[in-house]
Amino acid sequence: MNLEDLRIVANPTLVRDHALDKLRTAIATGLYKPGTRLVERELCDALGVSRTSVREAMRQLQSEGLIATGSRRAIIVSVLSAEDAYDIYTLREMVETTAIRRLVAHDDQKAVKRLQAAYKAIAKYAGKGDLPALSEMAGTFYEEILDGSGSKVVRDTGRQLLKRVSYLRLASMAEPQRVENGLAEWSAIVDAVAAGDADAAATALGAHIRNSRTAIVARLKAQEPATLDA
User: Fold this and answer.
1) Which of helix, strand or coil describes residue 37?
2) DSSP state of 4
3) What's the CATH superfamily of 82-223?
4) CATH 2.40.50.100 fits 3-77, yes or no
5) In which residue ranges of the chain is CATH 1.20.120.530 found?
């Protein structure tokens, strides 16, 4: 994603929602990296919208934990610690394995086909080496699982957790063998769902999330400043 991609060229009724989606994507794709200061005037210029729309979008992003108030009340892209990421992925495993068990129990073939379609798109982007598109489609894959639970509480809780780590997903895919291993894991999840095996689906999804957690936590720990002994 580039700065030019941020601009909202149409004049939609829900400008605030478009601004929110654009900024959320900009953070997820690394256009605005963790710790980057977000200046309201610059965002207005980039998006081509009013300050009111930008402020409303930023309030929502702050409620999602994607941005935070830094020193001197500056608004910055949130920085997750390795411990934060570990906890979020641990909660993801709890929520998403619950969701996939319910998805299988509902035996909704339309939901199964949507999950299969998301996996096929993941495999296509992986083959092309298009990591940003792959990362975005992986998010869609997880959202399909959450939606398939049939529970608003499970869906909303899971989506909130996904938003917190959206930018980390792309970074983790750059780790050696993570995409190749991930493809095998996604395939196992889809196969288990298609077979109607809730236990296997939950086991495969749980393993996938834990493997992602290991890659991301290791990456974040490597980026954290070394602590000197007193």
Assistant:
1) strand
2) G
3) GntR ligand-binding domain-like (1.20.120.530)
4) no
5) 82-223
Q: Which residues of 70-94 are buried (b: 16+ CB within 10 A; e: fewer)?
A: eeeeebbbbebebebbbebbebbbe
Grouping H, G, I as helix, E, B as strand and the rest as coil, residue 75 is strand
**What tens digit of pLDDT does each residue of 60-99 get?**
999 888 999 888 889 999 988 999 999 999 999 999 999 9
Helix, strand, coil fractions of the chain, as percent rounded to 5: 75, 5, 25
- Report the candidate in 112, 136, 102 with the shortest Cα–Cα distance to residue 122: 136
Helix or strand or coil: residue 142? helix
Read off the amino acid at residue 12: P
Instruction: Check residues 81 and 167 and name the one with the higher pLDDT.
Output: 81
Q: Are 35 and 76 in contact (CB under 8 A)?
A: yes
Evaluated on CA atoms 96, 98, 101, 102, the torsion sign reads negative
